[in-house]
């Protein structure tokens, strides 16, 4: 089961800060997490971070009602 975190209300830099805090919490529990965001939000920093740290993730950018990023541990 995927823990769902809504990031849609945040803007940079708080968006990235909240993402990292929630990711660390999920990682410590080894729980998959889904980060919901708005299409208009800039998430390039999040995707670059996941790539650089070699996380296993999938971006569902056409999901309805909101796109999301699923990170698995």
Walk me through what this model shows.
Helices cover 34% and strands 25% of the residues. By secondary structure, the chain is of the alpha+beta class. It has one domain: Ribosomal Protein S8, Chain: A, domain 1 (2-Layer Sandwich), CATH 3.30.1370. Strands 1-2-4-3 form a four-stranded mixed β-sheet, covered by helices on one side. The model has no long low-confidence stretch (mean pLDDT 96).
How do the helices and strands follow one another from N- to C-terminus? EHEHEE
How many strands in all? 4
Computed CA radius of gyration, to the nearest angstrom: 11 Å
Helix/sheet category: alpha+beta
Helicity range of the residues?
25-40%
What does the main sheet amount to?
4 strands, mixed
Secondary-structure topology with pairs:
Blueprint: E1 3-6, H1 14-29, E2 33-36, H2 44-52, E3 56-60, E4 68-72
Parallel strand pairs: 1-2
Antiparallel strand pairs: 2-4, 3-4
């Amino acid at each position: 089961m995927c823990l769902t975190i809504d990031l849609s209300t945040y803007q940079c830099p708080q968006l990235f800060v909240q993402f990292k805090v929630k990711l660390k919490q999920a990682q410590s529990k080894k729980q998959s997490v889904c980060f919901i965001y708005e299409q208009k939000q800039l998430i390039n920093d999040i995707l670059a971070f996941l790539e650089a740290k070699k996380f296993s993730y999938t971006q569902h950018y056409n999901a309805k009602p909101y796109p999301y990023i699923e990170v698995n541990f």
